[in-house]
Amino acid sequence: MLKAIIPKLPMRDKAATKAFYIESLQFSEIGDYGDYLLIRKDNIEIHFFLFEALDPVQNYGQIYIRVADIRTLYQGYLDRGISIHPNGPLTIKPWGQQEFSLLDPDNNLLTFGESS
After folding, report:
1. Residues in Cβ contact with 48 at an 8 Å cutoff, skipping those fewer than 6 apart
2. Which CATH entry fits the domain spanning 8-115: 3.40.50.10260, 3.40.50.10170, 3.10.180.10, 3.50.30.80?
3. Are 90 and 102 in contact (CB under 8 A)?
4. What are the tens digits of pLDDT across the range 83-115?
5. What is the pLDDT of residues 11-41, one digit of tens each?
6. Could you give the 3-state DSSP secondary structure of residue 69?
7. Is the pTM of this model over 0.85?
8. Which of 63, 69, 100, 101 has a CB 3.0–4.6 Å from the CB of 85, allowing a cystine?
């Protein structure tokens, strides 16, 4: 039986990844194993693997995170100065989801969504 899915994303610099996710997005570190980092916030867990040769322009890593109270989350990120993707401000999509997106330091796309 399937229980959960945990995305694994590339990172070039663990310190930059920690700063973004832990300090800015307020995730917690749950494991640091040299070239492998684990973080969590609420019921969301993300793993990162070191990929120093990653070209961020060529990175197509992306995850979709379903949330509750998306407007509060969005405003909180804006209030903390987190950059929203230029093509990803909070909007209602044709499929009925409220969504917004941002990029992490390695150009992994994070899209947050809530049913309208």
Report:
1. 8, 9, 10, 11, 14, 17, 36, 37, 38, 39
2. 3.10.180.10
3. no
4. 999 999 999 999 999 999 999 999 999 999 999
5. 999 999 999 999 999 999 999 999 999 999 9
6. coil
7. yes
8. 101
pLDDT of residue 116: 78
Element (H, E) at 100: strand 97-103
Ramachandran area for residue 12 (φ above 0: left; ψ -120 to 50: alpha; else beta): alpha
All structural domains of the chain with their residue ranges: 8-115
First to last CA, the chain: 30
What's the DSSP call for residue 21? I
